[in-house]
């Protein structure tokens, strides 16, 4: 078990460009979450999947953000027409299904929009 | 809806104890605790479910008072490795999971 993997670790993009991040969860975990974290703040919920179904999406998430989890394995988070306010650490986490399980986080993708 | 943690920051000498509190304005189903070191991802410490239980993890333990919608994290005989930012995470039945405002803990020799 190699934990939760995220790629890339860092991404610098120009405003207006599209970016896509990938997350590979722990293989037996059927829940996958995306969070965004800015400096000095706690992680902010974006969306989560149970297997391939996207069960919840934050109302804070604009239409520029979309996430997929084909076949219930890896997940991608795409941000279209990036804005400077999108600069943040994007964290992926996975867990087993059930109330007794905590989240295992990946190392995150740091996005800088210039 | 974000739970509020107190204190915001605390500095301890090695061997001292600390308590971090997490309060929610809504009824809770479960509380998680995580520690995040600078530049790293949050690491899961423990989870407490509705039922007022208390759990321990080495010298770190936590309690959950569902009536008061509060949880507390207890760190005893602190070590340098305990330094980091501690986040509670709260879940209400059928709702999103929210992380708290965070508590920065610094342990000095």
Report the C-alpha radius of gyration of chain A, rounded: 13 Å
CATH 4th-level superfamily of chain B: Immunoglobulins
CATH class of chain B: Mainly Beta
Question: Could you tell me the radius of gyration of chain B in angstroms?
Answer: 13 Å
Distance between the termini of chain A: 36 Å
* Overall geometric form of chain A: globular
Helix-strand string of chain A = EEEEEEEEEEE
Q: Strand tally of chain A, please?
A: 11
Question: Which regions of chain A are unreliable across 5 or more consecutive residues at pLDDT < 50?
Answer: none
**SSE string of chain B, helix = H, strand = E?**
EEEEEEEEEEE
Quaternary: heterodimer
Please describe what this structure looks like.
The complex is a heterodimer of chains A (114) and B (109). By secondary structure, chain A is mostly beta strands. Helix content of chain A is 0%, strand content 49%. In chain A, the strands form 2 sheets. In chain A, strands 2, 4, 5, 6, 9, 10 and 11 form a 7-stranded mixed β-sheet that branches. In chain A, strands 1-3-8-7 form a 4-stranded antiparallel β-sheet, with no helix packed on it. In chain A, a hairpin with a 2-residue loop joins strand 5 and strand 6. The N and C termini of chain A lie far apart (36 Å). In chain A, 34% of the residues are buried. With 109 residues, chain B is an all-beta fold. In chain B, 0% of the residues lie in helices and 56% in strands. Chain B has no helices and 11 strands. In chain B, strands 2, 4, 5, 9, 10 and 11 form a 6-stranded mixed β-sheet that branches. Chains A and B meet through strand 10 of A and strand 4, strand 5, strand 9 and strand 10 of B.
Keywords:
heterodimer, A: 114 residues, mainly beta, 7-stranded mixed β-sheet, 4-stranded antiparallel β-sheet, globular, B: 109 residues, Immunoglobulin-like, 5-stranded antiparallel β-sheet, 56% strand
């Amino acid at each position: 078990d190699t934990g939760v993997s995220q790629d890339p670790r860092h991404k610098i993009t120009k405003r207006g460009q599209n970016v896509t991040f990938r997350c590979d969860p722990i293989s037996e975990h059927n829940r996958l979450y995306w969070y965004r974290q800015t400096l000095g703040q706690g992680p902010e919920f974006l969306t989560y999947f149970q297997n391939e179904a996207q069960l919840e999406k934050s109302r804070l998430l604009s239409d520029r953000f979309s996430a997929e989890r084909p076949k219930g394995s890896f997940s991608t988070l795409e941000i279209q027409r990036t804005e400077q306010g999108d600069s943040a650490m994007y964290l992926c986490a996975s867990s087993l299904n059930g109330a007794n399980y905590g989240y295992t986080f990946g190392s995150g993708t740091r996005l800088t929009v210039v | 809806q974000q739970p509020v943690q107190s204190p915001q920051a605390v500095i301890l000498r090695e061997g001292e104890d600390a308590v971090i509190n997490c309060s929610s304005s809504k009824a809770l189903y479960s509380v998680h605790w995580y520690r995040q070191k600078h530049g790293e991802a949050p690491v899961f410490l423990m989870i407490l479910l509705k039922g007022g239980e208390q759990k321990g993890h080495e010298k770190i333990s936590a309690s959950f008072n569902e009536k008061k919608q509060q949880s507390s994290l207890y760190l005893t005989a602190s070590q340098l490795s305990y330094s980091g930012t501690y986040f509670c995470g709260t879940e209400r039945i059928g709702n999103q999971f929210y992380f708290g405002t965070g508590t920065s803990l610094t342990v000095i020799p």
